[in-house]
Amino acid sequence: MIMKSIKYLLSAFILLFLAACSKSDDELLRVIPEHPSMVVKINMASICQSNNLLSDDGNLTISSRLNEVLSEYSNSFSSRIIKSLPASGIDFSGCAYFFSASAEFSSEFIATLRDSGAAKKWICSLCNENSMQSAKGIDYILNNGTFYAIDDDVLFIGAAKSSSNIAKLTDAVAAMMKRDGKRLADNPTITDALKGDADATAYLAVSSLCKQSALKRLNFSGLSLTDILSGMEIDALALNVNLAESLKVDARVIAKPTSAYKMMFGSLISKPSADFLKIMPASMTTMFSASLRGNVLLQMQPVSTLLASARAFPIIRDFDFKKIINTIDGPVAIGVSVDPDFIDEYNVVVAMASTDTDAVIAELNRVASKYGKHPQSVGNENVYEYFNQRITVGVLNNRYVYFKLNTDDIDTTPVADDEVKKLFAESPICLNVNVEDFNVALAFESSEKISCKVNTLGENPSALLTLVTGLCRLESSSHTYDDEGFSTDDDDYGSAAPIDEMVSF
After folding, report:
1. Per residue in 246-280, is it b (16+ CB within 10 Å) or e — as a string?
2. Are 255 and 234 in contact (CB under 8 A)?
3. 120 near 126, Cβ under 8 Å?
4. What is the pLDDT of residues 263-322, one digit of tens each?
5. What local confidence, expressed as pLDDT, does residue 15 receive?
6. With the C-alpha atoms ordered 131, 135, 137, 140, is the resulting torsion angle positive or negative?
């Protein structure tokens, strides 16, 4: 479910990055209801121009580099739809909007058309239909849960909710196209957040998003993600996205100073440090760090719930985890890499800043001795054997207690990358991931500012190509399609390759 959700979201953004409108912002903002739970504005003109995707007459073209990527993943539906966009009739000279604001749709997309006739042919081709139907002044097709509609020079694509029928869908879209009453253009809170010269801007109303069923299904220690987010009292997230050699996302957390989130961040977060990288191998493909105060952490309900659940396991029940956690003051870091010799086996390094490293080591030795797993001293480290796994425990600078699991078969050279060191030294919460030829760096720089940077490793990096490549890889790993774009997966939607995967999450 999570992987599908990620794929859907990535697909939606790819479609947005390659579809735009020439209509003024205000005209399109008058189509969108006043209070969407989410809205994304894409400045397509600059993106298309910087990636050589516009011809002299303003039509979309597929650059040679983009075509190479699409050809490599020619069996993916995303590849097929991107290749078809030059014939879509969409105007690629301005902006487009992706949003969620209707009771009948889980997500919606609007763009301006330069050729409505071409757009109708494009939609019919996608849906394997001969023509569109008409009602309420709009032309439409409902196919595989996706509702396509054209009103004059506006294209609408929406992921229909299962409870909706044709009448409800046409009524909802027709009402939007009338542009009556209060619309998004009349909401300065959101429109101000969407201003600026970024390639894309977004506004996410957290309280509204918490009502989405997909989020309700995500649980942590017995609490749903929506319960956790609701309890944080965060009003919204505002995002700026820029595409150049790398994909850069800057997010702003909008919350009152007295909100639970701001109060928690101020009390829980400790000073960051990159000192633990001295024992973190550079070969770790994923590294995460959160600088915490253990005494505050113990007061949080999810932590209490987790500790209570863990007591179901005998060896864990014997540990005085509260005592250990209470000593934390600074980074708690974890590094993970896939074991090169074993499938689904991982090398793991954990480091924990502690105010009393001796007490932590003594607690580990106490429990190990109880189970007859007396540690073997190797240099300044203790080695434990547990279920044929070797766990190495040591102390760094009387500040960090660290744990190593199955690290003999990997390069243990410490991290030397200056950018990685800077990331962990300055960010109280951060994540660094290397996957194939991609690098992702995510950082909470403060309670309000979050940044994410995705780099393409190698020559001539391109953020757009990174997005397209990542999307096609995700889709190719989970779906296969025949020559006409129909899914061959037994558990798929059973009709044409689902365009709702492009706009739903």
Report:
1. bbbbbbebbbeeebebbbbbeebbbebbbbbbebb
2. yes
3. no
4. 999 999 999 999 999 999 888 999 999 999 999 999 988 788 888 887 777 777 888 999
5. 54
6. negative
Q: What is the DSSP string of 406-462?
A: S-TTS--PBP--HHHHHHHHH-SEEEEEEETTEEEEEEE-SSSEEEEEEEE-SSS--
Q: Count of CB atoms within 10 A of residue 220's CB?
A: 12
pTM: 0.79
Count CB-CB contacts under 10 A for residue 35. 15
Structure token digits, residue 70:
């699409």
Strand partners, 395: 401
Q: What is the token pair recorded at 22? A: 């020439």
- Please state the separation of Cα 54 from the chain's center in Å: 28
> According to the model, what pLDDT value does residue 42 have?
87
Among 95, 92, 91, 89, smallest CA distance to 24 is for 95
Query: What share of residues in the chain are helix, strand, coil (percent, to 5)?
Result: 35, 30, 35
Under DSSP, the state recorded for 375 is: P
Q: Give residue for tokens 């849906």.
A: 127
In this predicted model, what pLDDT tens digit does every residue of 208-227 receive, in sequence order? 877 765 556 666 555 667 77
CB contact at 8 A, 282 and 419: no
To the nearest 10°, the Cα dihedral for 465, 500, 217, 184? Answer: 90
Answer yes or no: are the C-beta atoms of 182 and 166 closer than 8 Å. Answer: no
Cα–Cα distance between 115 and 229 in angstroms, integer?
Answer: 43
Phi and psi dihedrals of 379, rounded to 5? Answer: 65, -125
Pairing of strands 200-205, 38-43: antiparallel
Please tell me the total number of residues recorded for the chain in this structure: 505
* Residue 389 burial class via C-beta count within 10 angstroms: exposed 0-12, middle 13-18, buried 19 and up: exposed
Q: 164-171: long-range contacts at Cβ-Cβ below 8 A with a sequence spacing of 24 or more? A: 164/104, 164/105, 166/135, 166/142, 168/104, 169/104, 169/105, 169/140, 169/142, 170/135, 170/136, 170/138, 170/140, 171/136
Under a CB-based contact definition with an 8 Å cutoff, are residues 173 and 138 in contact?
yes
CB 156 within 8 A of CB 136: no
